[in-house]
Amino acid sequence: MKAIQARVTGRVQGVSFRWYTQERARSLGVTGWVRNEPDGSVLLHAEGEDDAVDALVAWCASGPSTAKVGDVAVRAATPTGAASFDVIG
């Protein structure tokens, strides 16, 4: 079991990044949340099997075709026991 927090920067707001992230996380069996931040980045908390969380982070590096990702900064996080993957805000 792995839990991470990732901040995605670039052109990631206004391009359905959160929705696509939610869809990808659900397909991978990852739980947590994703939200837009005031600085224009997208922040997400993801937890689940190591390979699934790693796959979600790898996907975030490119995101949906409408996004232009500049960077994905990942750090370890404490698992929250989330039961689903939600879009916040």
Automatic annotation (TrEMBL):
SUPFAM superfamilies: Acylphosphatase/BLUF domain-like. PROSITE patterns: ACYLPHOSPHATASE_1, ACYLPHOSPHATASE_2, ACYLPHOSPHATASE_3. Keywords: Hydrolase. The active site is at 18, 36. Residues 3-89 form the Acylphosphatase-like domain. It catalyses: an acyl phosphate + H2O = a carboxylate + phosphate + H(+). InterPro entries: Acylphosphatase (IPR020456), Acylphosphatase-like_dom (IPR001792), Acylphosphatase-like_dom_sf (IPR036046), Acylphosphatase_CS (IPR017968). The keyword Hydrolase applies. Its EC number is 3.6.1.7. Transmembrane segments: none annotated. PANTHER family: ACYLPHOSPHATASE (PTHR47268). Belongs to the acylphosphatase family. This is Acylphosphatase. It comes from Nocardioides renjunii.
